[in-house]
Amino acid sequence: MDAEQKREKRMKKNEESFRELWDNIKHTNIRIIGMPEGEKRGKGTGKIFQEIVAKNFPNMGKEPLTQIQEAQQVPYKINPRRNTPRHILIKLTKIKDKEKILKAAREKKHITCKGTPIRLLADFSAETLQARREWHDILHVMKGKSLQPRFLYPARLSFRFEGEIKSFTEKQKLSEFSNTKPALQQILKELLSAEKKKPQPETKIPQMTRLTRKGIQ
Prior knowledge:
By secondary structure, the chain is an alpha+beta fold. The protein has a domain at 28-124: L1 transposable element, RRM domain (Alpha-Beta Plaits, 2-Layer Sandwich). Helix content is 43%, strand content 19%. It has helices at residues 3-25, 37-40, 45-56, 95-108, 126-133, 136-144, 171-178, 182-197, and strands at residues 29-33, 68-74, 87-92, 111-113, 116-122, 150-152, 156-161, 164-168. Helix 7 (171-178) runs antiparallel to helix 8. The chain is globular.
């Protein structure tokens, strides 16, 4: 292995470490998308979140949600050049409450706040979001073949094949595995072949931003 290869390997390891650190920080976060700016005025972001949960998931259970640790709008200031509303970030103290709410949101599918459709999503680093997007085509094909694919946190693809659960974080590893399974190789052949032809992106260290207490009401 020459110096350039060692450097690339070191950079990739650093990138993965930073991404893992940042996703761990965001592990209990919920991101609210689509909330009109007018609905946010005069109310704290934490209060808005509690109202959304109460009105959309009345049967979630009698056990109260854990305390909201942090809540704020991002970006903190409104950009007059953008018409899209800012997101709201909610940081809960327990991961089980985040998972409970997001599961209910997936099952209900249509979440609203005073008649306005909104979305409740897990909060990931930009790098993890991109990693998840890169699995979407394969995820779609696997669903069509009843392989029961799903994401494991944060960006690991899991599916059932020949009675066993398999999971991968890299397409290269999936490709190597599919080479030993002709049936799976046939299903994924075109997608993995197209992936090999793509130029490799430049390795970058992700920039970390911080969810602060500024703006909590």
